[in-house]
Amino acid sequence: MSSAAMKLANAADTSSEESQSLIADMRKAVNTLRSIAVEYEKENRPDKVKEVEKEMLELLASYEDCAFLAEAVKAVPQIYQPSDQPTDFKKLIEAEVTKIKGNSRVSGHCQQLVRQFREVVWDVHHAGQPMPGDEQEELVMTSTQRNILNIKCPITMKPIIELTDPVRWKAVSALLGFMSKLFENCVIAQLKWLNLELHTI
């Protein structure tokens, strides 16, 4: 590795460490906002809950940007090509961010945090009740069925497009958890069941 590449790698590592520290602080802030929203909900102040949720969504947008940028900066030393011409690092990093956005799990993680926020707020006055919309979570088949790994029901072995009353995801999760406990003492059964779980998610 050339001297320039070495310096670039060191700078990228330092920047990545600083970004990770910032990302950790953002996660703590999300947890704090969630606790504040719960307190407002207990006080029956929905307007304040909405304000806190708005702040959290803005924070998560910044969280995503920071996470994407941290990944991109860390990748720069591997994609950097020495040249006689000046390197446009801004353009290089922006291109890497675009690439990472298409493959990163960060967005999915943020959606999960939003879901958790709304669930804890909902549970303040509606513990044990499904959130609005959850009762509609039926298995819906579309033209994208070819992308689904498991095209047959693991219980009835019928093609999933022929199911007349498909179970909800929460019920499937409960069933998988129950069955996995039954097999916890059998290594071979565990491996077979793990394979089934992976193909039904």
UniProtKB/TrEMBL annotation:
<dbReference type="GO" id="GO:0005634">
    <property type="term" value="C:nucleus"/>
</dbReference>
<dbReference type="InterPro" id="IPR026846">
    <property type="entry name" value="Nse2(Mms21)"/>
</dbReference>
<dbReference type="GO" id="GO:0000724">
    <property type="term" value="P:double-strand break repair via homologous recombination"/>
</dbReference>
<keyword id="KW-0808">Transferase</keyword>
<dbReference type="GO" id="GO:0030915">
    <property type="term" value="C:Smc5-Smc6 complex"/>
</dbReference>
<dbReference type="GO" id="GO:0061665">
    <property type="term" value="F:SUMO ligase activity"/>
</dbReference>
<comment type="pathway">
    <text>Protein modification; protein sumoylation.</text>
</comment>
<keyword id="KW-0833">Ubl conjugation pathway</keyword>
<protein>
    <submittedName>
        <fullName>Uncharacterized protein</fullName>
    </submittedName>
</protein>
<dbReference type="GO" id="GO:0016925">
    <property type="term" value="P:protein sumoylation"/>
</dbReference>
<keyword id="KW-0539">Nucleus</keyword>
